[in-house]
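Sharing a chain and its predicted structure for anyone who wants a worked example. Both blocks are below, sequence first, tokens second.
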Amino acid sequence: MAWIYASGRDVKHVAGANACLRTLCSASFPGWGARMRLIVLSLLLSAVSATPLMAAEPASQPAVASPLAIGETFTIESRALGETRRINVYRPKPWGLDPKTPLPVIYMPDGGISEDFLHVAGLVQVLTGNGSMRPFLLVGIENTERRRDMTGPSNVAEDRKIAPRIGGSAAYRDFLRDELMPQVRQRYPTTDERALIGESLAGLFVVETLLQEPTLFNSYIALDPSLWWNRSALLSGAGKQLPSVARSGARLFLASSGQPELAASSARLAAVMQQASPATLVKYQPLPEETHATIYHPAALQALRTLFPAPPPASP
């Protein structure tokens, strides 16, 4: 008698088949001739021999995953900062936009992939896609020492405790003006229109740049800026600097959260600007329902719609 052999997960099936074979071979069945017994054995062998073949078929392997690319990234060796900085770039692709069309540029500190770049890029994508905003190139600067780069000097001891190094905003501005902007112009088709967006300490840097070098950007977006820095010295001296800001033609979108100290300082800046340079302040938007941690996305949505609306569709 021939036996059926298998291994692994097929053993149980084969054991049962062998038991049936023993029964058929040893038992006597009235009315069964040799021919009938042979037919039954053949059917049993065919059924069992197919089982290992089906069970042995390898499971399909999952497809190899590829990185999800939403833009480009490059590094730049900065003499102004004395370090290498990573830059992330997103160019929207709304229907009908020629890839060679020059675009205005939004520069954003806190522009790392694990920082604010992805959600702001999402806003640019959806707003340009639905026709709410003109297409802009988004350039994010990944942080290395955020509290160094976003702050000016401070005479306040508590301020100097927040990081090993502070007061590097002037060098960071040099980096933007003299190193990053020329690189962006070289790499991408751009117009001369530029904007700067930042929240918290980056919002402080936005306001400082507006007051100290207003022509560096055309539009400024300051979200819940940390104007408390250095006992609000930037805010206290704003009145003297606003005449030059007014002459520059720069525009500001300012927003504040429900955090009392930040809301009060932003409201104070808005009042000073309304008096000394009303054309500069395009909009002051208090968002008391937002916290300092949640304000960036909803405020940026309003800012992009307000400052950069898409032109109305042409009449047929």
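Comments welcome. Residues 8-55 form one domain.
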